[in-house]
Structures are given as structure tokens and as C-alpha cells.
Design goal:
There is one protein chain. By secondary structure, the protein is mainly beta. 3% of the residues lie in helices and 33% in strands. The protein contains one helix and 14 strands, in the order βββββββββββαβββ. A three-stranded antiparallel β-sheet has the order 1-9-4, with no helix packed on it.
Length: 178
């Protein structure tokens, strides 16, 4: 189905009722897809596609800025990019050790400059600019999901990534209104 961005004026709790869903199969289109979750947290390493091997990005959640994650949690939305139309299969959830939660920090090449952007609310994004040739697979690993709605903190190069090997790339900056 359709995914939506919701913005609330302040933090609040929202109750959801319904029948528990322990596993699911979701149809995805080629490119970026906004997905939900099942009733219990699922490790992204347990999620598969049919046909297999089509996941072409990290899983991203938006929490003030784009964060990669290895846990799909109930009640949240996530972006994932696939290289072709497929089915995404959430297996039955298993107990996850607490140590698996949190953002994934991609392996950053050693020969890059780092630029950190932060707004007054503490949202931050790090951009990496390489000084040597990098293969397309590495560059694609740093590609970000589609831009969030206007007015939301978003920092990226104009190649839609947090990594650039081209010194001609411009930085796109979108910040929240004061």
C-alpha cells in the first residue's frame, strides 16, 4: 500500500489495535520503497527478496536525519532500494539480542574528507568526499532515500548520496524552519 510522512507538533503516543502479524510478504517496485513492519522487531539480515539478491541499499529510517538501521521495528516506516520488482519477505520474528539495535555505520573509506552538518535541534549528517577513484558499488552504498518533505533537515550531495568522489558535486542543504 501507500506510505505516508506524518508530522506532529510535539511528541505523543499513538495506540494501534489489530491482529498481530508475525510474518508478511510485501510487493516492491524497482527503486526506493517505503515499507512498514510486522508486530515484532525483525533483523534486516533475516529479510529476503524473491527473486533473491535484489536489495540494493541499506535500510533507512528518518529520525531527524537519515539513519541506516539493521532492525525493522513496529510502528515505523523504512526506505529500502531494490534493483528490480520483487517480493520482500518478513520471516517470523525471533528474539533479538539488545546489542543488534541501533544505526549501522557504513565502512567509510580512509581516503576521504568528512564534513559534519548539525542544526540547533541536534540533527546531524556527515558527508564524505573522496580524493581518489571509487567504484560505483561503494558510491551506491551511500545513496540516500528520496528527499523528505520541504522544511525537513536533509543534507546530501547532488548525486543523492553522502559520499562523492567528484569534487564538482554540490552539497544540497535543506533545513527546518526556525
Amino acid at each position: 500500500g501507500n506510505g505516508y510522512w506524518l508530522k506532529f507538533a510535539s511528541a505523543q503516543s499513538v495506540s494501534l489495535t489489530g491482529t498481530p502479524i508475525n510474518s508478511d510478504t510485501v510487493d516492491l517496485n524497482k527503486g526506493w520503497n517505503l515499507i512498514g513492519s510486522v508486530t515484532n522487531p525483525v533483523s534486516t539480515s533475516n529479510i529476503v527478496t524473491v527473486p533473491s539478491g535484489l536489495i540494493g541499499s541499506q535500510y533507512f529510517e528518518f529520525s531527524g536525519s537519515w539513519q541506516s538501521t539493521n532492525i525493522i521495528s513496529p510502528g515505523k516506516g523504512y526506505f529500502v532500494k531494490v534493483s528490480g520488482a520483487c517480493k520482500l519477505i518478513y520471516p517470523p520474528a525471533i528474539a533479538l539480542p539488545k546489542t543488534q539495535e541501533g544505526p549501522i555505520l557504513p565502512q567509510v573509506p580512509t581516503n576521504v574528507d568528512r564534513i559534519t552538518f548539525m542544526d540547533r535541534e541536534g540533527n546531524r549528517q556527515i558527508l564524505y568526499r573522496g580524493t581518489t577513484n571509487m567504484d560505483n558499488g561503494l558510491l551506491m552504498a551511500y545513496e540516500l532515500p528520496p528527499k523528505p518533505p520541504l522544511g525537513i533537515f536533509d543534507i546530501r550531495f547532488d548525486n543523492q548520496s553522502t559520499l562523492s568522489a567528484d569534487h564538482q558535486q554540490y552539497v544540497h542543504v535543506e533545513v527546518q524552519a526556525a
